[in-house]
Amino acid sequence: MNSLIDLVDVVIGVDTHVLTHTAAVVDAGTGGVLAQRTVDATVAGYAELVEFADQHSGLRAWAIEGTGGHGAGLTRHLEQRAELVVELDRPERAQRRNGAKSDPLDAIRAAREALARPRLGTPRSAGERQALSVLLAARRSAVESATDAQRQLFSLVIAAPEPVRAKLRGQKLPAMLRTAAKMRVNPSMDLETATTVTVLRALARRAHDLADEAAGYEREILRIARSMRPDLLEQKGVGPINAAVILCAWSHPGRIHSEAAFAMLGGVAPIPATSGQVVNRHRINRYGDRQLNRALHNIVLTRLRYDDRTRAYADRRTQQGRSRREIIRCLKRYVARDLYRLLEHTA
């Protein structure tokens, strides 16, 4: 989307929170504040905001902070009414002038920032994309909790009484989990041993249950990703989880205006760091969607292991004096370019 100045008469900036939303109407030509309103973050509050906006004539756009978070309900309400919605990130504290902070000020800032940007982002789509996002969050939580349970079990085994350690000694973690899940408390055990056995069994069963839960989420993720973009899953190194992360970040055609912008979103676009006599130097991009960055990294590592073309490229760049980390950074940028072109130009 191009600049709003030539498209609309007013921009309504909205600072979103859990319980309330604050809106400010800003004139697109002058940047002046015309009105402000705070409403509840409910369907009735959303309707009140629309009525408030109707009091100002002319074409309008909404600049909303957190369209995928606190502003998701308002965004859906506005999109159902065919309103023009612009997505904005929340500002970093250092970007707030003189440290000033209030809901009306943030709403005004959102509107003026939308007017100042040469290119604007639209909210990510709902439906299947949002379903993938929910499943990814649930799976991530299950995997992390299962890992925590396994780590706790391993730590407890180290200091466990000798009868318990003897049953688990020399076993790898998967075998240790299976053994611990089958342990029983013997009446002859002392309090320490009986308590340790009980806790180890609970941790092992919890880890197994969470692993099964994560596997169920992954099957559903695969089903949705395959229905959305089966061609993405055909790419080397792109499994269901990586595909889901990529689809959630990309969302829909036209949302990201170029492959360079997609690379920047994924944190794989090198940042120039040239100054004085130091030329042709770049920094690693630490910004962007870190889940997307991780997905691109996993794809590159898989291709380095199984893809002949990628291995040949790595060998050639190694001979030119590049380090493995530099090669991986370059490959992540190339993968981002290829995936963007695939998503944008393939039905």
Major pleated sheet = 5 strands, mixed
* Strand tally: 7
What is the CA-CA span between the terminal residues?
A: 21 Å
List the helices and strands in order: EEEHEHEHHHHHHHHEEHHH
Please give the oligomerization state of what you see.
single chain
Mean pLDDT: 90
Poorly predicted runs are: none
Describe what this molecule looks like in 3D.
With 347 residues, the chain is α/β, with parallel strands linked by helices. 56% of the residues lie in helices and 11% in strands. It has 13 helices and 7 strands. The strands form 2 sheets. The protein has a 5-stranded mixed β-sheet. Strands 6-7 form a two-stranded antiparallel ribbon. The radius of gyration is 26 Å and the shape is globular. The two termini are 21 Å apart.
Question: What features would you highlight for this structure?
Answer:
347 residues; 13 helices; 5-stranded mixed β-sheet; two-stranded antiparallel ribbon; alpha/beta
Reconstruct the topology from this structure.
Elements: E1 10-16, E2 20-27, E3 33-40, H1 43-54, E4 60-65, H2 72-80, E5 85-88, H3 103-116, H4 128-158, H5 162-168, H6 173-181, H7 191-228, H8 230-233, H9 240-250, H10 259-265, E6 271-272, E7 282-283, H11 290-306, H12 308-319, H13 324-345
Parallel strand pairs: 1-4, 4-5
Antiparallel strand pairs: 1-2, 2-3, 6-7
